[in-house]
Amino acid sequence: MVGQTKITTLSPRGDRLVRLIQRTGNDNMMAPEAPALMGITNEGRDIPVRQLAGENDSGRYVVSLVNIRKVHEFIFHRRQGDVLILHLADTAFVRLRSVRYPRNGKPSVITDVAAADADYQQQLAFWFDRIPGR
Hints:
The chain is α+β, with helices and mostly antiparallel strands. It has helices spanning 12-24, 33-37, 113-128, and strands spanning 26-30, 47-56, 59-66, 73-80, 83-89, 95-102, 108-109.
């Protein structure tokens, strides 16, 4: 192995979050509309996920572990009023796409990068405080 480097797709913190969700989360199904805008499809059927939820003074936070494309991905989501804000991220916590899903409407991709990044960072901070072994 001299001169070779090990290639990993998980960051150490991402690996710990995956294990936390697998160990303490619940199996659930996500409606396919919002994940489809993120490029995650299951031929129109609900998306199987493992979810972990938590709350603080600013509301309820949920992280879903998705493995439908044979690689772990996170969907972070929380409600802001009547709108659900979802962020797709890889296990290195790179935000890949964000979606806004109104309660009585259709989901749409968030094109305001600054707003999406700000909300994503807030959701990450919530979960980073809960990942064991920081």
